[in-house]
Amino acid sequence: MHESMNTEPINALVWTGGDHFELVACPFPKLADGETLIRLTTATICGSDRHTVSGRRSQPCPSVLGHEGVGVIQKTNNPVLAEGQRVTFSVTAPCLECDRCSSGRTAKCRSVMKTGHEPFDGAWPLSGTYATHMVLRAHQPVALVPPELGDVPASIASCAGATVMAAFDAARTSAHPIEGKRVLIVGLGMLGLIAVEAAVHAGAQVTATDPNSHRRELAVQLGASTTAPVENSLTTDLAENFDVAMEFSGSPHGVITCVNSLDVGGVAVLAGSVADSPDLNVDPEWIVRGWRTITGIHNYEARHLNQAIEFLSESKIDWNRVTDGPITLDQVPAAFRRPTGEGMRTVVDVVR
Q1: Which residues form the signal peptide (predicted)?
Q2: Is 248 exposed, middle or buried (0-12, 13-18, 19+ CB in 10 A)?
Q3: At a CB cut-off of 8 Å and minimum separation 6, what does 59 contact?
Q4: CA distance 262 to 294
Q5: Average pLDDT, whole number, for the chain?
Q6: For residue range 214-242, what is the model confidence (pLDDT) as tens digits?
Q7: Which of 87, 215, 217, 301 has the least C-beta neighbours within 10 A?
Q8: Prediction pTM value
Q9: Interhelix angle 302-312/162-174, nearest 10 degrees
Q10: Are 92 and 110 in contact (CB under 8 A)?
């Protein structure tokens, strides 16, 4: 349905399968109670969308991909929001009524809908950030973006940043506090790099590992010591020597390294395995006798988004060094067809 008050065109880049996209003109949406329409200014291309386009991860098709973004509210039926506010938003839109939501696990709501993961011909067509506009659902967490936080880190906060905050929450459950702990970060993509800075900031002794020397250099600049991974084995300084280990690579060797690095009482937080992965062989006796904990996190809670905004507002990460672009919306399909470079995210300047 159209609303005559809007004259600005709404265009969505619809993924139609494989590496094919179609730019589609959309009508102005009729907002339900609690919903909000934002004009996107910046999006960032997350690696999980690359998994979708390459066929490694399944999701509804056709759909508008993209789940990292920032924009300005154009119209809202949410009484706590106002037109003109600059915001970012959660990956998940929960119901807030099911048993999981009631227990505080809204990230795993039984009827959860997800940014950039919904069918274009379904109930939430403008769900993704590869578009000029996006509709936010009634119960979808929204965070105001402070003026000092740039569009790029604000966009990254909505997935990578908030996921890292959730990983630290999981680590603190079994190894509180992080301060003074020996922490291993496995995988130095965007999540791993943010985790390095967060762990150093919390006063941990941080070691980071990644096969990419450029990424290890970035971790050193943020205060970590680093080591290159050794395939199919652990170096002596990694084996059973850490209180907390966080895995962000999603690689089988990275997962094994993370788990096997735990000292007595250690906790491993797995966050990178978000696509099909091989089984992991774990010795139950080793876990039991060592009081070790292995946990996983996927998505995050509303508090983690706000924590990410606050943390990244003070971040020392050089966003120009860790991103590529910016590109325009109509250049997004080509970005998926070429190999990734040194940048951990490709920035999409939606307003151009």
Answers
A1: none
A2: buried
A3: 52, 117
A4: 10
A5: 93
A6: 999 999 999 999 988 876 555 667 888 99
A7: 217
A8: 0.94
A9: 110
A10: no
Peptide bond into 62 cis (omega under 30): yes
Read off the tokens for 116: 């950039």
- Assess contact for 196 and 222: CB atoms under 8 A: yes
Residue 4 has pLDDT above 60, yes or no: no
Residue 319, C-beta contacts closer than 8 angstroms, at least 6 positions apart? 150, 152, 153
Instruction: State the DSSP code for 331.
Output: G
Between the alpha carbon of residue 62 and those of residues 2, 43, 177, 299, 328, the distances in Å are 22, 19, 45, 23, 21
The token duo for 277 is: 């992965």
Q: Say if residues 158 and 140 touch (Cβ distance below 8 Å).
A: no
* Owner of token pair 């967060």: 198
Q: What is the distance between the alpha carbons of residues 320 and 151, in angstroms, rounded to a whole number?
A: 12
Degrees (nearest 5) of the Cα angle 305, 311, 313?
105
Q: What is the mean pLDDT of residues 202-213?
A: 95
Of 116-125, 132-141, 279-288, which range is least confident?
Answer: 279-288
How do beta strands 36-45 and 133-136 pair?
Answer: antiparallel
DSSP string, 71-121: EEEEEE--TT--TT-EEEE-SEE--S-SHHHHTT-GGG-TT-EETT-SBTT
CA distance 295 to 170: 7
